[in-house]
Structure formats: structure tokens, C-alpha cells
Amino acid sequence: MANSENTNLTVREGYDRYQNNTHRLGRIFTTIVLLLLLAAPFVIGLYLNTVPNLSAALKAFLGVGIVYLVSGIVEYLIYVPMLGAGGSYLAFITGNLINMKIPCAINARDIVGVKSGTPENEIISTLSIATSSLVTIVVLALGVILMIPLQPVLQSPALQPAFENVVPALFGAMACKYYRSDKTVALIVLSFMTLLFVFVPSLIGSTSMMVIPSGALAIGLSYLSFRKKAKAAEEGGNA
Amino acid sequence: MELLSRLNSPVLYLICGGIILFVAVICIVFAVRAYRMGKAMGIDVSKMKRVITASATFAVLPSIGILLGVIALSGSLGTPWPWLRLSVIGALHYETQVAEAASEAVGIGGLSIANMTPEAFTTIALLMSFCIMWGMVLVIFNGKAYSKRLQNPVSDKKEESGGKKKKPGLAGFGDTAMTAMFIGLVSAYIASYIGQIVSGDGLFTFTGSWLPLAVAVVAALAMAVFIRIKETKKADWIDSFSVAGSMLIAMTAAIFLGRLAG
């Protein structure tokens, strides 16, 4: 009996040590990757004989970057409990959370049958995210190697209209995806923004800045709708 | 085109490949540590092997979808930078939006290799790195404290000890707010394409380029087909390809529509 308790204590101590080291390594590695990613544009600038335009970067950040600041905080608060410590460090380094890491970790958790917040989940989640990240890295590396001989084709003038319309292609696909979730809000916001651009065409060149009023309007309308539904549900529950 | 050749040069492959290699090493370190700890904790080794196999197979299809994203961005940003961004931290929709916003701010109009300058490229690259770093920043400074709080939640203790029931407020609004934010973001751009047609060359002249709106419509239709297939055939796997697939279909249409637009 005493022997078993000692063994459990040793495993628990080992797990605590593992967790502390995970945080230590996670913070060190994440900091290094963050610095590398921020330094890379400057290093590339040295090669291209230029430097990034910081005032333009700030202007663009105030437009579209704010959206990602908010979504980054929300993602952090929601996903860390699902992924555990090790999984979170890896997932935030490697990205593609919604389209791969989260479903992959949940799938792994379901296969083994562990619960969130348990030491077992911590291990399974870390293994799952590390494996899926490595697979992505390998697939992309192989794909990029195969793309090298295709560079002349990809750079041909005939294909340029395709690459010049990457952004409209993205927003069309996303519109279909997100508009379905709240058609009323989508219709109001799209109509309002269309009138704005039609009557003040000078704003077309600053579309990224116009994301702020557009996003604020969408969030405001969604909040009103959310409150209305919550109130109706509360009244339904009381009745 | 000369700039595109420089953006595809071995130097850029080396810079981007080096960072990707470092991230691969981090993944291996974390995987090995987790596997060893799992063994020490008595987790069945066969279960851990199943997790590794299942995660590897699960990741193949989405990874091909991500590769399509690299191809989509390679025409305007070269191959190495999108390769880095989509291997580490990024996601296709995010990278494209931020790159577009940076292109506007730096004065080249939009994300296109025709107007790209070295300064514009490095600014776009910096903004792509900067805008999405918040998850990493939070996990560096708050990851340990947040994880510990989750293991010992204060709110549960309060509830157990007869704490007051929370009023419904902002709780639960997070997901809705994120969707709303994307609706706002997408609407701003789609509306700008309509504004471009109607008043791009002067108020109500209707002579602006219709190509961006037409491409967006084709992408939306393609996406609708993907969603329809997913829902009717219960093909959840199609989610991995839907955005990149819709984009590639719309981009292919742009080649033919571009000829009509002149």
C-alpha cells in the first residue's frame, strides 16, 4: 500500500516537473520563433536593399490588425483549455488552429477517451498537435519542392489575372461561409457599406480602414440579436 | 517579374526554410517529451501510437488544402514567404487579408506582383508577422498562470460554496462576435468592389472594373457547392479544401473573365 502511494507520488512529482519544463521550454521556443518571424522581414529587406515602411504597417494594423488582436485574445481564451499547456504552445506557434489543430486534438482525445484538463489529455493533445504540425511541414516542403520547376508557368502573364484576384476570391468564399450564419446582419452591413462606398468613392482606396466601422456595426447588430435571443430563452425557461 | 524572381531566390528559401526547420525541431522535442511522460504515467503505448497515426492521417488532407493556399499566394508574394507563413502560425484567410491591407497602406493599391516593390513586400511581410502574434504573446506571458487556473478553477469553487448565479451577459457572445467581425470584414471588401463598379471612375458612372466582384461571386458559388456536398454527403473532410478550393476555382475563372473585361 505504502509502496503504491510512493509510486503515485513519484509519478505526480514527475508530471509536475514535466509541466514546469513544458512552460519553460514553451516560453523560450515561442519567444525565439516570435523574434525570428518579426526579424525575417528586416533580414529579407537587407537582401532586397530596403526596409519595411513602418508608418504604412501601423496604418494597416489599425485597420485590419485590430480585428486579429481581438480574435487572437478570444482564440487564446477558448483554445488553451482544450489543448493543454504543451499543445497550446505548439498550436500557437504552428497556427492553422480552427482548420486543423483543434479538430485533430479533439479527434485524438475521442480516440483515447480522455477528458479536458487531465494529465492524460495534456499528453495526448501534445502528441496530436506535434504530429499534425510535422505532417503539415513535410507536406508543404514536398509541395514547395515540386513547385520549383513550375515557377515559369506560375509566373506566366496569362496566369496573372488569377493571382491579381486572390483577395476577391478569398472574400467571395468567406462571404458564403459567414453570411449563412446571420443573413440579416450580413444584409444590413453589406447594404450600409455599399452605400458608403458608392456615395464616397474616395474611401475605396482605404477599404482596410473601413473594416473598423463595418466590423463595429456587425458586432453591434449581432449583440442586439444575441441579447434578444438570450432574453427570450430566459423568459421561456421561467415560464 | 524581376522582383518575383528575387522573392523566389535561394536566399529567401534559406531564411524561410531555416525558421520552418527550427519549428519542426520544436515539434519533435515536444512530441518526444510527451511520449516519454505518457509512458511514465502508465498511458498505454499502443494508445499513444494510435494517436500519432490518427493525427498524421488526419493532417494530410488539411495540409494539402494549406499547400493550395501557398500556390494561391505564390504569384504575388513568391513561394518561400507564403510557405513560411502557412507552415508556421498562419492561416490562408488571415494572410491574404493582412497582405491586402498592407498593400493598400503602402500605396500599391492591392495585392499584386505587377505593382509590388521591395519596400511593399517587406512591409507586407512584417505586418503578416505582427498582426497574428497575439496568441503567441499571450501564451508567453500568461500561458502558465492560465493553465494553472484552469487546473484549479476559482469559479467552480465559488459555485460549490453557494456563489451567486451569473447573469447572462457577454458570456457566450465570443463565438458570435468573432463571426460578426468576419461578416463586417468581408462586407467592407465586397461593398468596395460594388462601389468600384458604380462610382470607381466618378459618381454613378458605372464604368469601374467588375472583375473583382465577378471573381468574388464565382468563389461564393463554388463555396456554396462545397457546403452543399458537405451537408448532403456528410463529407466533413471537404472542409479542409473548401476555402482554398473555392479560391482556386475563382482564380481560374479570373483568367477567362479577365479576357472579357479586357
Large-scale geometry of chain B: globular
Number of strands of chain A: 0
- CA-atom Rg of chain B in angstroms: 23 Å
Low-confidence stretches of chain B: 153-168
How many strands, what sense, and barrel or not for the largest sheet of chain B?
none
Order of helices and strands of chain A: HHHHHHHHH
- Report the portion of residues of chain B in β strands: under 5%
Helicity range of chain B: over 70%
- Percent helix range of chain A: over 70%
Distance between the termini of chain A: 55 Å
The string of secondary-structure elements of chain B, in order, is HHHHHHHHHHH
Tally of helical segments of chain B: 11
Instruction: State the separation between the terminal residues of chain B, measured CA to CA.
Output: 21 Å
What would your notes on this structure say?
The complex is a heterodimer of chains A (239) and B (262). The radius of gyration of chain A is 24 Å and the shape is globular. With 239 residues, chain A is an all-alpha fold. The model of chain A has no long low-confidence stretch (mean pLDDT 86). Chain A has three domains: 1-52; 54-140; 160-228, no CATH class. Helix content of chain A is 86%, strand content 0%. In chain A, helix 2 (54-94) packs parallel to helix 3 (97-112) and helix 8 runs antiparallel to helix 9 (207-238). The longest helix of chain A has 47 residues, at 2-48. In chain B, helix 10 packs antiparallel against helix 11 (239-261). Chain B has eleven helices and no strands. By secondary structure, chain B is mainly alpha-helical. Chain B has helices spanning 2-7, 10-41, 45-77, 80-87, 92-106, 118-131, 134-151, 154-160, 173-199, 211-233, 239-261. Mean pLDDT of chain B is 84; it is low at 153-168. Among the domains of chain B are: 89-147, no CATH class; 187-262, no CATH class. At the A-B interface, helix 1, helix 2, helix 3, helix 4 and helix 6 of A face helix 1, helix 2, helix 3, helix 4 and helix 5 of B.
